[in-house]
Every structure is written in structure tokens, then in C-alpha cells.
Specification:
Elements (H helix, E strand, L loop, with lengths): L6 H12 L3 H14 L7 H29 L12 E7 L5 H9 L13 E7 L2 E7 L14 H10 L2 E7 L4 H14 L2 E2 L7 E5 L5 E4 L8 H10 L5 E5 L5 H8 L4 E2 L1 E7 L6 H11 L4 E4 L8 H11 L2 E8 L2 E2 L4 E4 L4 H8 L7 E7 L7 E4 L10 E6 L1
Parallel strand pairs: 1-3, 1-4, 4-10, 5-9, 7-8, 10-11, 12-17
Antiparallel strand pairs: 2-3, 6-8, 12-13, 12-14, 15-16, 15-17
Helix pairs in contact: 1-2, 2-3, 3-7
The protein binds guanosine-5'-triphosphate and magnesium ion (MG).
């Protein structure tokens, strides 16, 4: 170790050497990396530390996977109803139930800790969003929250999670707690799915493609895989990735989930400063300020969910009347996708369809099954 490292970095390294558990080692090494200045003289040292860290993390995820299998993973999900399932996650008293009431026109008791999840439907411009109000998360260690793992399991199975942050309390702390419990549960909300394909096989050895996109060599990647007990697999890397991306790809428990941040109690004095601070902390995530008391933010949440999930709404017409509920599809969907939703027979008996599009040059188009639809299209299907 070079002698000219800052004292704190040296102390962290000492802590690493003395650490007994894998978790402690990982924490100390992470600390060491963050405390070591980055320049030419420390380049090699940091690289070495990063490789060791990666190995330790993979070892830990392997261990957790085995423990989970033995324990029987807690699996809780709430049956989906409507077009989208949206969960509300946050610390105690931040306003989740008040928000739930505002969105779903419910009258659940507020100001008293929620013990069991509540379920309701938020109808927003033709889209039925199933909202799940959850009991609070108490701290960074999920096992300190009653049924904490079950709560995260519900989040894991939903389509999008709302991180509910109270603007009248320490926003930095709230975000830190929520990010930590999600990360530990391997629910990734702050980065896209990496361009990595990882497939375990039963024979053929370890095959690696695209090592040049990482800071590691093929040999080093191979070493990581063997340290996880993997002897046969394909690892394909198709673009620039960092250590976190590789870790996520190799850990099969990882899910990538959409998230929005909902900043509550925007009506209270001082909330603007907290809102501005929050936006700088959660770079990349959409932040929606709301006030349940003033009933502000409903539209923005509905719109936010639709945009984040890339949804489009298609309206069907029957006897000249437009339906109240839209057919909700993902951007890029075609007339065929919509037809399948309406009736299983519609594709087979399909003759043609008329699409009415408000802001298009041609307002009314006669189209076939492969025609790509857009948000707001009015669709009439003619069958044999
Ligand atoms: N000023 C203001 N107070 C709010 C707002 N939303 C909620 N509150 C108050 O905050 C307190 C907690 O609200 P709840 O909705 O019960 O909070 P919660 O997050 O469901 O609480 P737990 O279930 O314990 O996690 C209540 O006293 C609410 O009246 C808001 O928009 N503005
Ligand atoms: Mg509540």
C-alpha cells in the first residue's frame, strides 16, 4: 500500500483486514475505495481493491442465494387488477395512506400506522391503476421492519414503485433508507438493465464475450464466475458496463423496476427547499410534488406512471360511442395487439380497422393488423 494515502483510507483498510464477516469486509473495502483519492499513483491499488470487492460481493450473493433456498424465500404478491400495479413505499407517517385515499377515493384512517396493505383503484384518463398502500419501512435493515421482506416482495412483483418522501422531514435520510432496503433486496430502480446476457449451462465451460467493455480481463471475469461455483455458462457483454452492472447480471435475484419519487406535504412551509434538495439527490428519477390536504398532484402521478412505463391508451368505439376505459398497451403495439385484447376471435375474423387520430395530417385512416398505434388513437375494428 502506498505510504501517502490519507489516514482515513488507511484506517478503512485496516478495518478491512480485521473484518470477520463477508458483510463487514465489503463495507470496509467500499469505504476504503471511496476514501482513496483517484490519480495515477493509486490507479493500480484501486483496481485491485475493486476486483477484490467484486469477488466478495459475488461470494455474498451466492451465500444469500443458498440461504434463501434453504429458508424458502418469502413470496408475497397481490393479485393484479387493472392495467398497472403501483406500490407506495416510505417511512412512517410520510403520508402514504393520505396519498392512497386521494388517488383511489378511499377513506382509510390516516395518522395511525398502517398494519396491513390496502388495495384500491386509481382511475386516471381511461387507465386503471391498482394502488397498494404498504405499512412503513422502519430502518435501513429490513429485518427491523415487521414483515419487511414480505413488503419488498410485493414491491418486487408490482409494475412500478412510488417512493413516498415527506418534505417536512429529513429527505436525505428517507432516500438513503429506501435505496438501501431496495438495493439489499436486489430491486434496482436507479439504473437501466445492463446490455448483458448471462446464461448458465450444464456443459461447455465458461464462454465470455465482450470483456473489452469492462475494466476486467477475460481471466478475471472467469475467476469471478468460478468463485461463484459456476463452471458452465455464457456471459455476453454488448456495451460499456461497470462493476454494479456485472454484479446485477450475475445475480439472478435482481429485478429492474420503474420508480417515481412522490414528495408529500408540499403545502407546509419550508417544503420548497426540501423539494429542491430531494431533486438533486435522486438524479434521474422523476420527482412529483403533491399535497394530499390540498388534493394536488393526482394528474401528475397518473401522467408520470403512464410515461415511465411507456404506455399508450387506445380507445374503442361501439355504436359511435367512445369507451370509458382505454385498452392499455406498451408503446410500439399494433392493431393486432389491441384486437387480441378485445376478443380472442377478433384477429382471426379481422377485415380492417379505422384509426382516428386527432393531431395527424390524415385524421381517419383505414389500416391493417400490423399498423402501429399511438397514444390517444380511437380504434374501430371491422370483422367478417
Ligand atoms: N400538511 C400535510 N399533512 C399531511 C399530508 N399528507 C399527510 N399528512 C399528515 O401526515 C400524517 C401521516 O399521514 P398518513 O397518511 O397516515 O401517513 P402514512 O405514511 O400512511 O403513515 P404510516 O402508515 O404510519 O406509515 C397525518 O397526520 C396526515 O394528516 C399533506 O399533504 N399535507
Ligand atoms: Mg399509512
Amino acid at each position: 500500500m502506498p505510504a501517502n494515502l490519507p489516514a482515513e483510507a488507511k484506517a478503512a483498510y485496516q478495518k478491512y483486514l480485521e473484518a470477520k464477516t463477508l458483510e463487514e469486509k465489503i463495507r470496509a473495502l467500499e469505504e476504503f475505495i471511496s476514501l482513496t483519492p483517484k490519480h495515477k499513483g493509486t490507479e493500480k491499488l484501486l483496481m485491485h481493491a475493486k476486483k477484490t470487492l467484486m469477488k466478495l460481493k459475488l461470494e455474498l450473493s451466492k451465500k444469500q442465494e443458498i440461504a434463501k433456498k434453504r429458508r424458502g424465500a418469502p413470496y408475497f404478491s397481490i393479485p393484479k387488477e387493472g392495467d398497472v400495479q403501483f406500490t407506495l413505499l416510505g417511512l412512517p407517517g410520510v403520508g402514504k395512506t393520505s396519498l392512497f385515499n386521494m388517488l383511489t377515493e378511499n377513506t382509510k384512517e390516516v395518522g395511525k400506522t398502517t398494519i396491513l396493505p390496502s388495495i384500491g383503484i386509481f382511475k386516471y384518463e381511461g387507465v386503471w391503476i391498482q394502488v397498494i398502500d404498504l405499512p412503513p419501512i422502519l430502518s435501513e435493515n429490513i429485518d427491523e421492519t415487521p414483515n419487511g421482506r414480505a413488503l419488498l416482495s410485493i414491491v418486487r412483483n408490482s409494475d412500478i414503485v412510488g417512493l413516498v418522501i415527506d418534505l417536512s422531514q429529513d429527505v436525505k435520510w428517507q432516500i438513503k433508507v429506501l435505496f438501501k432496503v431496495l438495493k439489499d433486496a436486489r430491486i434496482v430502480i436507479d439504473r437501466p438493465k445492463p446490455p448483458i446476457r448471462f446464461l448458465k449451462l450444464s456443459r461447455g465451460g465458461i464462454q465470455i464475450y465482450g470483456a473489452q467493455y469492462t475494466v476486467f480481463s477475460i481471466e478475471e471475469l472467469k475467476e469471478f464466475l468460478t468463485s461463484m461455483g459456476i463452471q458452465n455458462c455464457i456471459l455476453e457483454i454488448h456495451g460499456p458496463v461497470d462493476e454494479e452492472d456485472i454484479l446485477n447480471a450475475l445475480d439472478r435475484r435482481t429485478v429492474f423496476k420503474k420508480a417515481i419519487v412522490i414528495a408529500t406535504k408540499g403545502d407546509l412551509p419550508g417544503s420548497y427547499g426540501a423539494y429542491a434538495e430531494l431533486k438533486t439527490i435522486v438524479k434521474g428519477l422523476r420527482v412529483i410534488p403533491v399535497s394530499a390536504i390540498k388534493r394536488i398532484g393526482r394528474t401528475e402521478i397518473g401522467r408520470g406512471i403512464i410515461e415511465e412505463l411507456n404506455l399508450i391508451r387506445i380507445w374503442t368505439k361501439k355504436d359511435g360511442k367512445i369507451a370509458e376505459r382505454a385498452i392499455v398497451l406498451t408503446r410500439g403495439a399494433t392493431v393486432k395487439d389491441a384486437a387480441e385484447r378485445i376478443h380472442s376471435d377478433f384477429v382471426r375474423k379481422f377485415k380492417f380497422a379505422i384509426v382516428e387520430r386527432k393531431y395527424s395530417k390524415i385524421r381517419k385512416m383505414r389500416v391493417g393488423l400490423s399498423f402501429p398505434l399511438e397514444d390517444g388513437d380511437v380504434l374501430t375494428i371491422y370483422t367478417d
